[in-house]
Amino acid sequence: MSGCVSHDHDCGDVGCAGSSLYKVINHPGVTCLNAVAADAAQAVFRPWERRHEREPVLESNEDDAELLVRVPFTSDVKVSALPCGCHTVAAVR
After folding, report:
1. 93: Cβ–Cβ under 8 A, 6 or more apart, which residues?
2. Other Cβ atoms closer than 10 A to 71
3. Which member of 13, 41, 64, 91 has the greatest number of CB atoms within 10 A?
4. Cα(42)–Cα(40) distance, integer angstroms
């Protein structure tokens, strides 16, 4: 796996950081409906080097557990994966 962590492909000599879309996210434009904190969605998108950090988190309102995240990009992109980490899974209704 050539230095890659938690996925099932070989990143080769370049490493997986080269495929990160972090640089082309329009961070001020990231929004989330039903989040507890209005600007929380912007903070959860981190550079590759910080991908294993567990803070900050994106939490939903108690009234509606569904999070709707809008991520605008500064150029055309192809999203092939969206890694997500969960601290605790609350009761699902």
Report:
1. 65
2. 18
3. 41
4. 5
pLDDT digits (tens, 9 = 90+) for 28-47: 999 999 889 878 899 888 88
Distance CA 54, CA 60 (A): 16
Nearest-angstrom CA–CA distance, 44 and 50:
10
Q: What percent of the chain stands above pLDDT 90? A: 22
What is each CA distance from 71 to 22, 25, 37, in whole angstroms? 11, 7, 16
Domain boundaries along the sequence of the chain: 25-70
Pairwise CA distance, residues 59 & 43, whole Å: 12
The per-residue DSSP string of 6-27 comes to SSSS--TTT-GGGG--GGGB-G
**Rounded Cα gap, residues 34 and 64, in angstroms:** 7
